[in-house]
Design a protein that fits this description.
It is a single chain. This protein has 74 residues and is of the alpha+beta class. The protein has one domain. The chain has a 4-stranded antiparallel sheet with strand order 1-2-3-4. Strand 3 and strand 4 form a beta hairpin. The chain is elongated and about 65 Å long. The protein starts with 8 loop residues before the first strand and ends in a 9-residue tail after the last helix. Bound molecules: zinc ion. The site of zinc ion (ZN) has 5 residues, from loops.
């Protein structure tokens, strides 16, 4: 029986929401969010970074336009 290949990982970044690791063998990036793990190539990580930043900015812009009563602020 052939044992499965085990990748070696380094942590690139981590916070209370997610941890991002890079495989030292195949350069694959793993994003761990709670019980979920997403595997991406480094180019896709950059694309995900861009779209998440765009989404966060859009959300902030929408919240800034709402009256404070609609945001739950007393
Ligand atoms: Zn790997």
């Amino acid at each position: 029986m052939v044992s499965p290949k085990v990748c070696r990982h380094e942590v690139l970044a981590s916070n209370g929401v997610a941890q991002v690791q890079r495989c030292l063998d195949c350069d694959c990036v793993s994003i761990h969010v709670g019980p979920l793990t997403f595997r991406l190539d480094p180019t896709s990580l950059e694309g995900l970074w861009t779209v998440l930043g765009d989404a966060a900015m859009a959300l902030h812009a929408r919240r800034a336009r709402l009256p404070s009563s609609a945001r739950g602020v007393a």
